[in-house]
């Protein structure tokens, strides 16, 4: 195909993970105010996964998967979707969407540290400066009293950081893992597995399940956008990019997403944007810039 591994497809994929994922913080925040988080995630990912496998079947793509690929798919599904996403969405109940996107922007810092630990990659001066600025930015961000006035908000921020750590490890793992070659098949199976696990978790927590017909119009629209754009388009783009460019470059979405998320949260949800958050984001994203702009050896 013309677009396969082409610069055009890579650019489109980056636009998807930059812009679409930046907007998902808003849509998840809207949905989680009405729906239980794990029920929300199970519906979102199971539906998106089934649609992707159906598309692959219609395109007559081979759907078979061996035991090794299945195991790797389960691992990736857990780090990306079960823990990295649905637990993060749970924490959104107690933290603004714009603020949470800034927490997620620490991903490149985690990726760099994990690559140092796992692959024994030497850190350059720019990387060390980036980590130093990132730590300062994170401290300023999470130390704000207006965001840590309750035990739930403090715990939510800590859990969000562990979610980012899990997502970062998954990014490194998937770049080397044996997975189905077709990205619709690979992503579809990841989502179906995640949807099943999240449904079990939802039942275990006695979450209330409801029919989409009973949801508000805003939640219905948010769910459609999360499934089609945030799930099928953006997550497939993400998996594709991890195979054709470095995990560090893919992680650059972390400093574009917050700009979009903060603006949308402020504009649509009237979320509070503090001066300290702005200062923290500038320092944090400057640190991320140092990491991602350094020369590759």
Question: Which SSEs are present, and which pair or pack?
Answer:
Elements: H1 7-32, H2 37-58, H3 67-91, H4 97-104, H5 107-119, H6 125-142, H7 151-174, H8 183-204, H9 217-244, H10 247-250, H11 257-269, H12 275-293
How does this model look, in words?
By secondary structure, the chain is mostly helical. It has one domain (7-293). The chain is 75% helix and 0% strand. It has helices at residues 7-32, 37-58, 67-91, 97-104, 107-119, 125-142, 151-174, 183-204, 217-244, 247-250, 257-269, 275-293. The longest helix is centred in the last third of the chain and has 28 residues, at 217-244. The radius of gyration is 19 Å and the shape is globular. The two termini are 32 Å apart. The model has no long low-confidence stretch (mean pLDDT 84).
């Amino acid at each position: 195909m013309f677009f396969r591994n082409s610069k055009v497809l890579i650019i489109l994929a980056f636009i998807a993970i930059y812009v679409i994922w930046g907007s998902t913080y808003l849509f998840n925040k809207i949905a989680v105010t009405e729906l239980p988080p794990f029920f929300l995630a199970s519906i979102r990912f199971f539906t998106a996964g089934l649609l992707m496998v159906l598309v692959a079947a219609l395109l007559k793509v081979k759907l078979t998967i061996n035991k090794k690929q299945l195991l790797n798919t389960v691992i990736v599904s857990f780090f990306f979707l079960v823990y990295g996403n649905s637990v993060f969405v749970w924490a959104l109940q107690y933290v603004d969407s714009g603020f949470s996107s800034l927490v997620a922007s620490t991903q490149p810092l985690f990726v760099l540290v994990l690559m140092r630990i796992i692959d024994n990659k030497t850190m350059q001066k720019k990387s060390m400066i980036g980590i130093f600025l990132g730590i300062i930015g994170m401290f300023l961000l999470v130390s704000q009293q207006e965001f840590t006035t309750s035990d739930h908000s403090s715990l939510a921020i800590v859990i969000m950081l562990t979610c980012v750590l899990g997502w970062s490890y998954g990014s490194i793992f998937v770049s080397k893992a044996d997975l189905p070659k077709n990205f619709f098949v690979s992503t579809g199976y990841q989502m179906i597995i995640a949807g099943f696990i999240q449904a079990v978790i939802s039942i275990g927590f006695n979450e209330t399940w409801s029919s989409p017909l009973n949801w508000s119009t805003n939640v219905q629209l948010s769910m459609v956008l999360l499934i089609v754009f945030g799930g099928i388009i953006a997550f497939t783009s993400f998996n594709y990019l991890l195979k054709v460019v470095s995990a560090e470059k893919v992680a650059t979405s972390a400093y574009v997403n917050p700009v979009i998320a903060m603006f949308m949260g402020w504009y649509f949800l009237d979320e509070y944007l503090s001066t300290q958050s702005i200062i923290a984001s500038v320092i944090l994203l400057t640190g991320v810039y140092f990491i991602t702009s350094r020369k590759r050896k």
